[in-house]
């Protein structure tokens, strides 16, 4: 009996000592940062990542000191299944509980990117790729994916025209994938529908054929003039030409049909090419689809073009202002004046 009591006492002492040691270790872990002089570290949590995998990554990057104890802390707080996906700005000088709280309750880092008006889908894709937000090939596949187009109500073969120009705050991953490209493209298309809603006449989304006409025309207007005040007038010119069964003769549509390989020099051979589906010098009516992403002022102009008798216009200054004419003779005169202005500007440089 004495031996048994002594053994039980020894076990109790060992348990107390072990408990004390565990308590000391836990206290030390919870109250000691990984680095005394902390530094900011960006850390990515992939979607669906296991907590142990994330904890190991945090230890490897020097944000915490012990992945196993960090995992035990998360289990104790019942937060081990509540990780958010995204990129987080952490600090190696933080205590473990603050690191955990940020991953569970904090906001992922968002990256700001501005998509200007007038870009094609491939220019937008390159811009997003350069910012590290998508892979271009993924983005290309998404904007041409029939399921994606059907889901977002896009009645064309690509999402061209629906990738809304704007400034976006987007999550960024170290390794962008197809899901990331779909998320970014979807965000832009959602933004198009949201911004277009107040522009539709009577607040109603137009029928498919009307939608196609307005979107295509808006994209052409966007490329033809950067002067917002001129856009309704430019739209009116194209409406007048369509009403008279005149070909549009819009350079930007031809350029779009040439694709990413266009070198910036529009040649007579390009204008004479009937195989270019977007060649409005050779093919009547509007091109088969939008030629860029446009702003809402261009869409408003397409929906409510200015009523006038103009059939021609030409840029008369490098600033983008145009001269409008009702007949070919006046148009040719304006073209000659434009060429004179350019020569004078070149001579003065």
Question: How is this structure best described in words?
Answer:
The chain is mainly alpha-helical. Helix 2 crosses helix 3, helix 6 packs across helix 8 and helix 9 crosses helix 13. The chain has 14 helices and six strands. It is elongated and about 120 Å long.
Radius of gyration: 31 Å
Largest beta-sheet details:
2 strands, antiparallel
DSSP helix fraction: 40-55%
Distance between the termini: 110 Å
Q: Which regions have little confidence, pLDDT < 50, spanning 5+ residues?
A: none
Total DSSP E strands? 6
Beta-strand proportion: 5-15%
Main sheet: which strands, in order across? 1-2
Structural class: mainly alpha
**Global shape:** elongated
Order of helices and strands: HEHHEHEHHHEHHHHHHEEH
**DSSP summary: helix tally:** 14
Quote the average pLDDT.
89
Structure in a nutshell:
The protein has 349 residues and is mainly alpha-helical. The protein is built from 14 helices and six strands. Helix 5 (121-130) packs antiparallel against helix 6 (136-143), helix 6 crosses helix 8 and helix 10 packs parallel to helix 13 (296-303).
């Amino acid at each position: 009996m004495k031996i048994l009591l002594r053994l039980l006492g020894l076990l109790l002492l060992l348990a107390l000592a072990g408990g004390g040691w565990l308590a000391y270790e836990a206290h030390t872990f919870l109250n000691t940062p990984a680095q005394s002089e902390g530094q900011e570290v960006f850390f990515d949590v992939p979607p669906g990542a296991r907590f142990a995998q994330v904890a190991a990554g945090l230890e490897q990057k020097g944000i915490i000191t012990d992945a196993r104890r960090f995992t035990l802390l998360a289990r104790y707080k019942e937060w081990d299944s509540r990780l958010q996906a995204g990129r987080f700005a952490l600090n190696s000088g933080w205590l473990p509980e603050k690191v955990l709280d940020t991953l569970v309750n904090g906001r992922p880092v968002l990256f700001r990117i501005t998509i200007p008006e007038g870009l094609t889908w491939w220019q937008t894709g390159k811009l997003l790729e350069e910012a590290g937000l998508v892979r271009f090939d993924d983005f290309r596949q998404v904007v041409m994916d029939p399921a994606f187009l059907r889901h977002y109500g896009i009645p064309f073969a690509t999402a061209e025209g629906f990738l809304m120009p704007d400034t976006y705050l987007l999550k960024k991953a170290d390794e962008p994938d197809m899901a990331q490209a779909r998320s970014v493209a979807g965000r832009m298309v959602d933004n198009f529908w949201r911004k277009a809603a107040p522009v539709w006449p009577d607040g109603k989304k137009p029928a498919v054929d009307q939608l196609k006409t307005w979107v295509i025309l808006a994209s052409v207007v966007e490329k033809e003039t950067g002067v917002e005040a001129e856009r309704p007038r430019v739209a009116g010119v194209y409406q007048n030409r369509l009403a008279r069964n005149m070909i549009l003769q819009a350079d930007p549509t031809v350029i779009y049909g040439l694709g990413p390989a266009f070198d910036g020099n529009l040649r007579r051979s390009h204008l004479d090419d009937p195989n270019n589906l977007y060649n409005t010098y050779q093919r009547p009516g509007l091109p088969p689809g939008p030629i860029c992403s446009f702003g809402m002022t261009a869409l408003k102009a397409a929906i409510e073009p200015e009523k006038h008798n103009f059939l021609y216009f030409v840029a008369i200054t490098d600033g983008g202002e145009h001269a409008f004419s009702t007949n070919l003779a006046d148009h040719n005169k304006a073209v000659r004046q434009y060429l004179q202005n350019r020569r004078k500007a070149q001579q003065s440089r």
